[in-house]
Each structure stands twice: as C-alpha cells, then as structure tokens.
C-alpha cells in the first residue's frame, strides 16, 4: 500500500504507462472537424468563466439563493457555455453525451488549485472549439494533472486546426511544445505537423452543425443590437475581431 507521501502519478505509472494512457485518449476522444472550426471558431463570445449570468435578455442579474443561509449571490459561469459550444459543434445534444466531459486544451492548470486559469477567463478562448476536446468523463483527470498528456493534446490540436492559443500565460508552454521530442508516447493517428493527418474521433461538418453555427451567428448579431445594457458588447466585439468572424 502507498504511504501518505507517495506521489499518485508514480503509483499510476507503476500500473499503466504514458503511451498506454495516450492511446486510451486517442481511441476515445471526439474532436471537432477543422471545417467546423473554420466555419465558426468561437461560439459564445459573450461568455467566459466566472462571467456573471443575466436574465431578461441581459437586463438584470440572475441570482442563486442559498437555502441554508438565505443569502443570494450573482450566478456565474462555470463551464456551461463551453460545454454547449462543443456539443453543438459536434452535432450533439446534451442528452446524447452522458458521462462525457468538455476538456479545454490550453489553460493554466494547477493540480493544487492555487492558480487561476486565465485562459478560460478570456472571452476569446473560453468557447473556442479549437481549444476543446470531448473525453469520457474519467479521462479528464489525465488532462488536468499530467503535463505530458496536455502537451500531446495541444500538439495535436494546433496541427489539426492550424491555430494555437496565444494568451500571454501560455507562451512559455507553447515554446516547450516546439521542442517536444517524446514521439514514442505520441498517438499514431495524431498529426505531428500541420495538416499531416486527421486523428481518430474527428466528427465531420454536417448540415445540422452548419445550421447551428448560422443560428449562433444570428443570435450574436441580434444581441449586439437588442440585448440589455448588461450584455458585454465590448468583449464580444473584441473576440469577434480577434477571430475575424463576420456576422
């Protein structure tokens, strides 16, 4: 039995190797098509993690009341609209993906939960479908705590979509990706270079996905014109400009 000072990853690697973990993710992950990414890379520019929710078409705060204390607090975004973006971009509905998790690929991960993930606090990257992959829920822990797995996902994503996150807080991490050498652990179906190949689990762009994207663009356009005063118009316009999305 491990003692109280044992590193959990050391115990895990005594039972399963890094290549086997990477292979498990390779065979079960679901990726958005590059065609879908080019069609609409960012689906909910109005949201970022911790973004407060509003009701009445962005006219008044949406509150959560604690049943024990009676205190009401402003409800905030966790991962709802990132999940929604990935679900729609894969042509799914929430009821069709039980026990699957939306995993952000680029981010500031801290297994000790002491650092804020500044990437998903940014409207430009939170609902970016090139910054997400759908994984069976138990496998998400690998991406949160294993830097090598995170690195391989990022290499795959940037070669699949021709884009990598340029948030200032991941520049050092991106430089590490340029010097990646452990190709023996890297999944065989994942591209090592831009446009080299398509990984397992890519969901093709369908007419249903295209329709969902057009509906999203129409809603963003309408909200910019007609939503209430709490709608974050400046953030939305900044994010749309970054991605060169025309409505």
Shape: globular
Q: Please tally the β strands and state the result.
A: 8
Could you give a short account of the major beta sheet? 2 strands, parallel
Main structural class: alpha+beta
Count of individual domains = 1
Run of helices and strands: HHEHEEEEHEEHHHEHH
Helix content: 25-40%
Keywords:
single chain; 247 residues; alpha+beta; two-stranded parallel ribbon; two-stranded antiparallel sheet; 10% strand; globular
Polypeptide structure, described:
- This protein is α+β, with helices and mostly antiparallel strands and 247 residues long.
- The chain has one domain (25-243).
- 38% of the residues lie in helices and 10% in strands.
- It has helices spanning 8-13, 18-28, 34-39, 80-89, 140-145, 147-161, 171-178, 207-226, 233-243; strands at 31-32, 54-55, 60-61, 63-65, 72-74, 100-104, 132-136, 202-203.
- The strands form four sheets. Strands 1-8 form a two-stranded parallel sheet. A two-stranded antiparallel ribbon has the order 2-3. It has a two-stranded antiparallel sheet with strand order 4-5.
- The longest helix has 20 residues, at 207-226.
- The model has no long low-confidence stretch (mean pLDDT 93).
């Amino acid at each position: 039995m491990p003692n109280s000072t044992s590193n959990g990853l050391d115990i895990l690697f005594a039972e399963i190797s890094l290549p086997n973990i990477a292979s498990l993710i390779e065979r079960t992950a679901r990726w958005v098509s590059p065609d879908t990414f080019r069609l609409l890379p960012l689906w909910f520019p109005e949201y970022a993690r911790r973004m407060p929710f509003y009701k009445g078409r962005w006219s008044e705060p949406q509150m959560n009341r604690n049943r024990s204390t009676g205190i009401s607090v402003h409800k905030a975004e966790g991962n709802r609209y990132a999940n929604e973006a990935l679900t729609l971009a894969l042509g799914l509905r929430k009821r069709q993906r039980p026990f699957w998790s939306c995993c952000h690929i680029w981010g500031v991960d801290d297994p000790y939960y002491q650092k804020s993930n500044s990437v998903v606090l940014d409207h430009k990257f939170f609902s970016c479908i090139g910054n997400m992959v759908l994984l069976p829920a138990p496998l998400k822990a690998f991406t949160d705590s294993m830097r090598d797995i995170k690195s391989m996902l990022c290499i795959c994503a940037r070669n699949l979509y021709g884009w990598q996150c340029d948030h200032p807080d991941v520049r050092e991490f991106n430089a590490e990706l340029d010097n990646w050498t452990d190709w023996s652990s890297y999944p065989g179906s994942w591209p090592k270079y831009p446009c080299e190949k398509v990984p397992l689990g890519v969901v093709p762009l369908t007419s249903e996905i295209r329709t969902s994207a057009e509906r999203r663009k129409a809603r963003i356009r309408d909200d910019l014109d007609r939503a209430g005063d709490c709608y974050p118009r400046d953030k939305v316009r900044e994010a749309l400009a970054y991605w060169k999305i025309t409505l």
